[in-house]
Fold these 4 entries.
Entry 1:
Amino acid sequence: MTSVRSAHALLRLLAWMSPAFPVGAFSYSGGLETAVNDRRVSNAVELDGWIDLLLHRGTFWNDAVLLAQAWRCQTDDEALMHLAELARALAGSAERYRETVLLGDAFRDAAAAWPHDVFERLGRETPYPVAVGAIASAHDIALDDAIAAYLHAAVSQFVSAGIRLGVAGQKDGVAILARLEGAITDVAGRAAISSLDDLGSATILADTAAMRHEIQETRLFRS
């Protein structure tokens, strides 16, 4: 019975983090488009470094910490509400705010195909990592697995954006995913034992790129 439950949890996680899951993540670049436009990211090596920094010190790290906290408090209405408020406050620009709440709402709506009372505790405009963490916990998905899958999906989306922006090819993208496996595993492990005191970033160029994207004239992405 345990193995069947584990298989169901794995299949749900694979479905939720699949590029085909209807959250619209492909529409966003998290400021990468501006970094490419400014020539701060102009090749696969620089794309790799940009993503690696976000994993260890930027938005990906903060998302992982928020996801872990949501996973732990998914049965507590008030704690989830306050966590969602904090996650919204951490969005560094209007576009980043819209990105996280629209992705969160889309994830919540699509994941409701797997019924659970957790959806009654998640209001509208629940940021994406909070929604993923709470729903994953409700469906008995291990915390380490949920964080690792979330980070892998985020990295994959940035790689895909880099390919679409012309700074890397598909073989380069696969190589980046392979190289960052260790970083994803490390960050997921640290985030799984983190607390909200561990929130914080040191990626000023990435944060300001996300802000400046709002006034960029020619755009492929919504952020």
Note: The chain is about 65% helix and 0% strand.
Entry 2:
Amino acid sequence: MEFYPETEAFDTGRLRVSDIHELYYEQSGARDGNPVVVLHGGPGSGLNTKDRRFFDPKVYRVILFDQRGSGKSTPAADLRENTTWHLVADVERLRTHLGIEKWVVFGGSWGSALGLAYSESHPDRVKGIIIRGIYTISRWENMWVNQAGANAVFPDYWEDYVSVIPEGERGDLLSAYHRRMTGDDAEEKLLCIRAWNRWEDILSQLVADEEEIEARRQQSDLADLQHAVTECHYFIHGGWLRSDTQLLDDVVKIRHLPGIIIQGRYDMVCPMRTAWALHKRWPEADFHIVPDGGHTSREPGVGQKLLEAAEKFKTL
């Protein structure tokens, strides 16, 4: 299957969701089409207009938005009132604001966690769920990336990641990074933000493209800040879940809904162990392992499975 061509938004807007936060959103495709909400990764990464290309613009009404503190939402990188459950409430506010009764939920990486949290909170407002690169905000997942796990596969790049933290603090890298990225030393903060984002960029690609990664690092310091600081904020607080397994335990609330789970075998950001655990809890959902896939939706096999999933849900 070919990706659909680039499309422009037919509507953009802003939605105030609290005394502090205002969200930016876009709609594209068919005005009266099958609505799908796309939940971006990170948290803190912001929407990606290329995600529209998974959906037939003659059939789908595609809603993209920047989560709190991300992209064009304001205030940028603000961590106040910025938790998983604030975002779940925001998704529901956006649905109501746009006059949508039910929609398809689509997300990857952090977007898969938010997609599960939202769908489990509002199953009566969900037509179906398409998620990839599965993440459930567990301590094991966060430690895999930031303490012990992925470093065994990428020891060379790991040296760069830990080099910005004094040796005596490397036993708890999340806390060490969090202190610096929320601290007052601007130079130290920027150094840690760049190291954090580069490490994740390396892990995100099945074959690391150094030139592409360095080109992305030339983006604004604000975009780097939004991603790294927000992400670390969520990780260190465990997503404000009642337990490490909340998102898996609550799958019982959505097992009646159509679901498609897509996972790259060699995903180094969100290892397949979590996707397998979700599959065992939700056997009714279609489960696809991409044998040569990594983390991002740009991996050819992962992208194809996402296209096929969107095609399958056209008539929900």
Note: Strands lie at 9-16, 22-29, 34-39, 60-66, 103-108, 126-132, 259-264, 286-290.
Entry 3:
Amino acid sequence: MKKTTIATLVAAAMTSATPAFATDVAKELAAMKARIAQLEAQLAAQQATTEKLEQETEAQASAAPANGGFADNVSVGGEVTLLAQQVETDGENSVGDVLVDTFELEIAADINENVKVSTLIEYLSADEKLDLAEAYVVIGSEDDPLSFTLGKAAHPLLVGDSAAFTDPIAFDIFDAKEGLAMLSYQNEMIQLDTYVLNNSAEGNEGLDTFGLNLGTTFSNGVSLGAGYVTDVANTAGPFSELGGLTEKIDAWRVNALVEANDLALFAEYIQLGKSNLAGEPSFLHLGAGYGTQILGADGTLFLGYSESDEAEDIDDVAGIDYELPEKRVALGVSRSLGENAEVTAEYVREEAYSDTDSDILNVAVTTTF
């Protein structure tokens, strides 16, 4: 058959089939368009449902603090420290004991976005009693640099940065928690507190003790601070026990912290005003801590030195007959026992104003939860 004849027959066949073919294609296109429209409608409905659920979830989350959900609003934490101690004092028999050194239970609650409440129940072996050490409310949102604290809390005269287990000498008398009203301002660099304290002098229950605290933190790891309070005679227990004390005793503090990689250095100095009984007592604390690996776990090597001057008349702490040390040196090591637990071994040397020296060995296990 000639090529022209074949071409003519093919062309004729295609021409005759075109109308039917076009009709089928049009139907298929229409069906596809309908299906696509149906899928788009289903997708839009699903997106609308998802957005609604997300909005409801966000609304419930933002409303949770106001609704008072326990799990979302309340946090409970604490610390337990068990201590084995051996004390050797000149001219006295050695004393050893195993005791609960510290027990703390802290309960905090976010009442709403502007109000928080915190309480601290504390047992200290020196006091041998369970006490509501802190209970205060903080008013102010997280985005607001201003906040107001009202209640029983630790007033910020003492900073006491230390890596040692045994506290500096100043802690023996200044770790005081009082009724206060405090206005604070804080940003990334500055912390400023101004406060009034409940002066608990006999026959006088008034907010007539005023204090100021300033702290600043620099980007190079250096922190500096200063503080002042108009009267410590009745806000630190030992002074209120000094019979015959006739005037207020003010106090000021300067402190510094330097952190460089795993090394931290501390310094703090507190100076009291002159009184008719206690001279002009002062307290100095220096310390160092170095984070490193101890027997395959995270640990810290530490050294602390503190001294008091003209403080020999301050010999009654929390109602206990106790001679305040003139010097205290603490040297030791702490090692992690896993998450939220560590063991500390420490040697402490104390020198009293009466020239009586004590050597103390502490082994403590501290757990937090």
Note: The domain at 68-368 is CATH 2.40.160.10 (Porin).
Entry 4:
Amino acid sequence: MTGDPELQALLRLTAWLSPAFPIGSFAYSGGLERAVADGLVTDAASLAAWIGTLISHGSVWNDAVFLVESHRCQAEPARVAEVAALAEALAGSRERHQETLLLGEAFLAAARAWPDGVFERLPDKVAYPIAVGAVTGAHGIGPEKALAAFLHAYASQAVSSGIRLGVAGQKDGVAVLAGLEQRLLEVARRAATSTLDDLGSATVQADIASLRHETQATRLFRS
């Protein structure tokens, strides 16, 4: 790196987890569309509760744990391959599996603009949090910072989905993000010291919504 390493790392992290980074995350709702159709999410308050629960106790928490583990072992190809296989196996539905693998593939393809040996150490296809964790780790970005940006990117995308689905306006969406800030920080700190033993979720309704979305006739999102 040249110049200020911390500032350069911040710029890269901002670019990789920006909504403008070409991974196509805007096309997925992670089951939120089905939750809206089923009346589980109806307004800004229930949208905030849905997002916050997934971050603290659901699939997003597991993604955070996988991100940290791949960040930790990105220099060990055999180990990162094992973690990648576990992350793929824990995808709870066909659409969830498709989403995380396609986002991971798109992330790695775009992140190659910043050359690094990490791309040769990863399997051909990896889940999105594995890709983000390995690349941020290889570029010397601390796990807590990577987690905070990753979780915020998820929350921002989920809020955007909620706005597109008509359960919140833009002003309400900003308020939801502001209200989630402390939770994002707490989960980032907790996940930064996690191990694979901390994997686990308790969001059955969200898992069912993801499965039910597969048969939804009219939809805006791919998951």
Note: The radius of gyration is 17 Å.
